[in-house]
Structure formats: C-alpha cells, structure tokens
Amino acid sequence: MKMNTSKVIPITSLVFIVGFMLYSIYSIDKYHDEKAIVDGERYSKLQIIKTLENEKGIFYFLGDKENQIEVNKRYYELAVSAYKDSQDGK
Q: Can you tell me where the transmembrane regions are (predicted)?
C-alpha cells in the first residue's frame, strides 16, 4: 500500500504545531497558578492598609507605612484563595 506523502507531511506538521500550542498554554497557565500561590502566601501575611477605587478598578495597598505594595483586588482574592487551597491539599 502506497502512502501519499504530500498529504501526510502537512497533517503531521499541523498536529505538531497544535500540540506545541496546547503545551505552551498549559505551561503558561501552570506558571500563573504557581505564581498566584506564592503571591497569595505573601499577601495573606500582609495587612491591607488602604483601598483605592478608580476607573481601572479596585486596588489594595498592603504592608505598612514604610513598605507598601499595590495589588488589584481581583488578583489579591485569586492569589489568597489559591494559597489557601494549596494549604488545604486541594
């Protein structure tokens, strides 16, 4: 049985490209999950000292009067939740 290589090579290339794209998306998502857990650990130890609401959204200022970090409310909640879930073994 002869195989027509003119059709096999493009299909193989397409499968490889789609597989690579899926792996890249998975890797990026996994990196963001791990980063959220690390950030959540740090954020959960810091006190919210100020809240700012503007056209870009709601922001928390964490830390103390000398050292502060500004965090988007949505990311703060996501990161703290991811950290707590990782501690619960989920």
A: 7-26
